[in-house]
Specification:
The protein is 58% helix and 14% strand. By secondary structure, the protein is an alpha+beta fold. It folds into four domains: 205 residues, no CATH class; 169 residues, no CATH class; 255 residues, no CATH class; 151 residues, no CATH class. Helix 7 packs parallel to helix 13 and helix 7 runs antiparallel to helix 23. Keywords: Cell membrane, Membrane, Transmembrane, Transmembrane helix. Its main location: membrane. InterPro entries: ABC3_permease_C (IPR003838), Lipoprotein-release_system (IPR051447). Belongs to the ABC-4 integral membrane protein family. LolC/E subfamily.
Length: 844
């Protein structure tokens, strides 16, 4: 009995679902493409994440060599003093301690700058440097070395940028083993030279620990942790490097895009499944009349959705790999800038598996409600040829519309309430992200149903032959609310996506501009690298340059700014900004005004850092390591998007007290009375320094920072246009699907005397009306979606920016989406003119 039921179910699936896919291969492909867009964004985000982590870990493993343990300080640069190294050497079970300096800098050759990883080592690091280089009893390598591929690419005048000026390197020893480290972008210096050139004084960045033959690494690590002072931590080879993670900046942004893509994919596959059910009502009724159960009909459409999900996943994985390339390229720029690590594109089997599961799961979930409607097919009505269109009635549309509006605005309200207090609780981030998906799905679907309701309400004057085409088109749209909803929804998606992502990017750019203006107003801004690269580079202002700047005519004050990468006691990474003149362009989430915190030697903390570490105003945060370590009170929590919201701000004086002397990455020159920014710029340009110095005014600084940020926003723009392309494909898919449903309707019009040209015009006008109304409602409801995404930005990227509605983008993409709908309607319009009326009406 069970076998016969299974056989019957498979027969129904084969006849109703599989045959439809074979007959309409193009339509199935378009449906899969619509779903593949969401999968592609998810896959691209996963590839970016795995590529970065794999590249960073690989470099870390190569530098660590056979050492099972390593000691790190609170500050990732110069965080370990000589006393800590001496203490580690005396711990039982420690065979050797290997101090290393790991600097990120620029190799300048032939007018071209290359990010490189500069390693300062002594002869104890024999796995990094060729043992033949160090003779017995020799403490350090006698000369600088580099990978063989890097040496071969350098010209005779190559220099290495350092914190004391550019270092001439007329000769480098080539070591072929270094070609596999960081794609060959590595330079090795003697430890003493690295300390002097990279402003480490007597400190180092990392100490690798080799363990005695019979000693247990875990036991030795425990002893080291007990002996070392505050702020010093012992990590194993398996623990990730505590350095800048580009994913902390890019992943929240990409994650918001992925949430939008998932919401769009759910809408599109649900819409396509619903239209497929409408198209095959008659076949479902015949199967039911022959004994098929309602569950069989629903299962068939779920199986069809799963099949399209598999196809969409494959397409999405391929598209995701393509999209991932510019995303990883942007991530590689950030990683090179902060860690000196080059990131290639890495696609592993786990990413492919997640892509497949995501596509199938999204397709099945989206198809559940439309598939259940197949089980409610009225058998007698369908078989008699008098199928009712309940969805066309205003009473049938309004309840769904109101329910979707309540759902969508409920999502916006939930996101707003969860972030009203700054989103500082862990649960608030989870609620906000879920609320964004609900808002996107609810409001975009509501836009489609609102469009159908408005079109249903439009009345034309009777007996006007000059508007016959419009009248027939409106009648066709009113007669089938399901079809009208599908067309309007297909256009609403790309318009909303464009408005949403454009508004998001505009808000980011405005935030960047606000920071630049606050820092540089009435100042001349100087850097030794690029205005967006100064924080992480070991190529900051040398003492000689600072001394010359202080003596320039017309200088009233030399204001320093430095970035310090540090770890908190729980291992969480934070980024300290030390300033002689702190600026605060971001809103306060909790605590006192930030300037009061600075004046009281208290900390200003970013919102995401506070939430992830449970930091509250009044808490004492341990910073620094060794004898300099100190607990400082948190006075203010800010909504800052810088470095993923993991910012700590303090005065330059307090930073040097905790972390030691710091070379400035940016310098602001304040003109004295009678001088000006322009005069100071001329003075700087006329003086010679031992390193390149770039100078600009406030406007130039703002443009430079915006240009630098644009490099990292490029992958977001790529994703935006990718989502738009997928959404436009959905327009074609939907209109092809609705054209199949209308064959008998078109044939009836032809039988009543309409010419092929009139039929073509009617079909095209329908697309224009439905898409224009859908674009209008989508743009209007996008304001609410923007508010939900703005709230999500508080908990994902730390930004609390004002609501920004890009009106020009909304109008542009509304026009583009409507045009795409009209172009997509041409094929079904032409096909509708090719059907013989007698063939289409023979079942009437």
């Amino acid at each position: 009995m069970a076998q016969s039921r299974v056989a019957a179910t498979l027969s129904v699936v084969r006849i109703i679902n599989l045959r439809a896919i074979r007959r309409h291969t193009l339509r199935a492909l378009l449906a899969a493409l619509s779903l593949g867009g969401g999968v592609a964004v998810v896959v691209a985000v996963l590839i970016e994440s795995t590529s970065v982590s794999t590249a960073v870990d690989d470099v870390g493993y190569r530098i660590a060599g056979p050492a099972p343990l390593r000691i790190v300080g609170a500050a990732t640069r110069g965080g370990i003093d000589p006393a800590a190294i001496d203490t580690a050497r005396q711990v039982p079970g420690v065979a050797a301690t290997v101090p290393v300096i790991r600097a990120v800098t620029l190799l300048r050759s032939g007018g071209h700058d290359t990010f490189v990883l500069a390693l300062g080592i002594d002869c104890s690091a024999q796995w990094i440097i060729d043992p033949k280089v160090c003779r017995p009893g020799q403490r350090e390598p006698p000369m600088m070395a580099a990978s063989a591929s890097l040496v071969a690419s350098l010209g005779p005048t190559a220099t290495l940028a350092t914190d004391v000026g550019d270092l001439s390197i007329p000769a480098l020893q080539p070591i072929s083993d270094l070609d596999t480290v960081n794609s060959g972008r590595v330079v090795v210096l003697p430890l003493s030279i690295a300390k002097a050139k990279f402003a480490r004084a007597k400190s180092v960045d990392i100490v690798y620990v080799q363990v005695a033959d019979k000693a247990s690494p875990s036991e030795v690590g425990a002893r080291l942790a007990d002996r070392l002072g505050p702020g010093l931590r012992v990590l194993t080879r398996e623990e990730p490097a505590r350095g800048f993670d580009v994913n902390t900046v890019l992943l929240p942004l990409l994650g918001i895009f992925a949430l939008v893509a998932v919401g769009v994919g759910v809408i599109l596959i649900a819409q396509i499944t619903r239209m497929s059910v409408e198209e095959r009502r008659r076949e479902i009724a015949i199967a039911a009349a022959l004994g098929a159960s309602p569950l069989t009909a629903a299962s068939g459409f779920l199986f069809e959705a799963a099949l399209l999900g598999v196809l969409g996943s494959v397409i999405g994985i391929v598209l995701g790999i393509v999209i991932a390339r510019p995303v990883v390229a942007a991530a590689s720029e950030l990683t090179q800038q902060f860690l000196g690590v080059n990131v290639p594109v890495i696609v592993n089997s786990g990413v492919i598996a997640v892509g497949l599961v995501t596509g199938v799961l999204l397709a099945v979930l989206a198809a559940i409600l439309p598939s259940l409607s197949a089980s409610k097919t009225a058998i007698a009505t369908e078989l008699s040829g008098r199928a009712t269109q309940d969805s066309a009635k205003p009473g049938g549309i309004w309840p769904k519309t109101l329910a979707l509006l309540v759902l969508g605005f409920g999502g916006v309200a939930a996101a707003t309430l969860a972030t009203t207090s700054g989103g500082l609780q862990p649960w608030q981030a989870t609620v906000t992200d879920a609320a964004v998906v609900v808002a996107v799905v609810g409001l975009l679907s509501a836009a489609a149903y609102l469009s159908a309701q408005v079109i249903t309400s439009i009345k034309t004057r009777p007996h006007r032959t000059q508007s016959a085409t419009l009248t027939v088109a409106l009648s066709g749209l009113r007669a089938n609310g399901s079809r009208t909803t599908a067309i309007a929804g297909a256009v609403a998606v790309p318009v909303a996506v464009a408005v949403l992502l454009s508004g998001f990017l505009v808000a980011i750019n405005r935030g960047v501009a606000d920071v630049a203006r606050a820092q540089a107003t009435d100042r001349l801004v100087l850097t030794t690298t690029q205005f967006t690269d100064f924080g992480s580079m070991d190529a900051k202002f040398s003492p000689d340059t600072m001394a010359k700047l202080a003596t320039l005519p017309g200088v009233d004050a030399v204001e320093r700014l430095a970035e310090i990468e540090t770890t908190l006691p729980n291992g969480s990474l934070a980024f300290v900004r030390a300033e002689d003149r702190p600026t605060f362009p971001f809103p306060v989430l909790a605590g006192q005004p930030p300037q009061q915190s600075v004046d009281a030697n208290q900390l200003i903390v970013g919102g995401i850092l506070a939430r992830q570490n449970g930091i509250r105003v009044g808490d004492r945060l341990l910073l620094g390591s060794g004898a300099r370590a100190a607990k400082i009170v948190v006075g203010t929590i800010l909504a800052t998007p810088e470095v993923g919201g993991r910012r700590i701000q303090m005065s330059f004086r307090l930073a040097e007290k905790i972390f030691g002397p710091q070379p400035a990455g940016l310098v602001f020159l304040k003109p004295a009375a009678g001088s000006s920014v322009q005069k100071l710029g001329t003075e700087v340009g006329s003086h010679g320094f031992n390193q390149p110095v770039l100078a600009t005014d406030a406007a130039g600084y703002e443009n430079a920072v915006a240009s630098g940020e644009a490099r990292f926003l490029a992958p977001l723009n790529t994703l935006k246009y990718g989502l738009l392309a997928i959404a436009f494909i959905s327009v074609s898919s939907t209109l092809l699907l609705t054209g199949m449903r209308r064959r008998r309707e078109i044939a009836l019009i032809q039988a009543l005397g309409a010419t092929r040209g009139k039929v073509f015009a009617v079909t095209t006008v329908e697309a224009v009306i439905a898409s224009a109304v859908g674009a209008m409602f989508s743009a209007a409801l996008s304001v609410a979606i923007l508010e939900a995404v703005r709230r999500a930005a508080i908990v994902n990227v730390g930004s609390d920016s004002p609501l920004t509605f890009p009106l020009s983008e909304a109008l542009l993409y509304a026009a583009l989406a409507t045009t795409a709908a009209v172009l997509a309607a041409l094929v079904p319009a032409w096909r509708s003119t090719q059907t013989a009326p007698s063939t289409a009406l023979r079942d009437e």
